[in-house]
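Students often ask why we bother encoding 3D structure as a string. The short answer is that it lets us treat folding as translation between two languages. Here is a chain of 354 residues written in the first language.
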Amino acid sequence: MLILTAIIITTVGVSVPKAYAIGRIYITPAAIDDTSIGPGSAISVNASAESVSDVFTWQVTLTYDPSILSCTGATTFVGSIFKLDLDVGPTIDNVAGIVTYGSTKIFGAGVSGSGVMAQFTFSVIGRGYSHINYSQPYGADTFLLDSLLHTIPVSVEDSSFNNYVAPPSATVFIEPIKVVNPSLTPGSSFDVNLSIASATDLHQWTADVFFNNSILNATAAVEGNFLQSTGTTTFTSTIDNGYNATHGQVHMTGALVTGTVSGNGDLAKISFETLALGDTPIVISNVDLRDASNTILPFTTTDGFFINVGVRDVAAIDVSVYNWLIAKGQTKRDRQGGEPWRLHGNLQRHNLRR
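And here it is in the second language, the structure alphabet:
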């Protein structure tokens, strides 16, 4: 409680608490949400009281995120009913994110009414979300006392600051996007990478990969080099080739112990065994990307595709065409009123399979 109680304890004796209607203390603005307020800018908030009676001493302690805001001062306004005989503080701890400030009367009755108790100023040092809250519980480090040294009941309303700017979307994709190889007959194996492009401040990620389990089985999933290029990482993977009746799943998650990484690279390498001839999408799902403050990062995904069935072209020979005008969505006869447009000739099939 700073030194406020020590100042006033000698001026009053033990007494019975008074009955009050409940007022409120609040912070204005109730929220500051503005991406244009970047590092190097300054903001201020007011700690105010409304409908309070017989305030002899008050103390306000605010908490905030010290990675986003740095408190630079606190003051009471000249002319405010809450600028009492003696101001105490501010006491600022920008490591813990705490500032305390107060004011007390020395003699006489307390004040009643509504107004600003104090204005707190901050320097913006980062981007993101920060609470600006009265310390809890009320009555400990934040309190209003009446002239008998009893806590005046109030409701408490906090504030916040947010200047977060979402980075550009990263792309999470299968590389190569298409595996088209008739030589990958049953029993063969191949690898694909789960890759990322245009990542910004990635700290941790989670993703699932699904595939047709009648065509492929996953055999392994190991971490790629993207996060490892920056520092120590953790990586886990779970393979469930019988995820359901038709699909297998590879579940993966990776994280840096500390720090972030931006740019392009491979998150993981997945190995598959071919079970049969056919094709299957290799689908990315349940992606979650986070930065070091656990903020969700935006992304898009591009799925992969596997096929090991040979595909050959169809060749057309001996083709002739009537004198036709062909328009989008319709056909027209020629000027002589001939038959509808048609293709003459023989089509030779060349072992077309899929």
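Translate back mentally: The two ends are 79 Å apart (CA to CA). Keep this in mind for the problem set.
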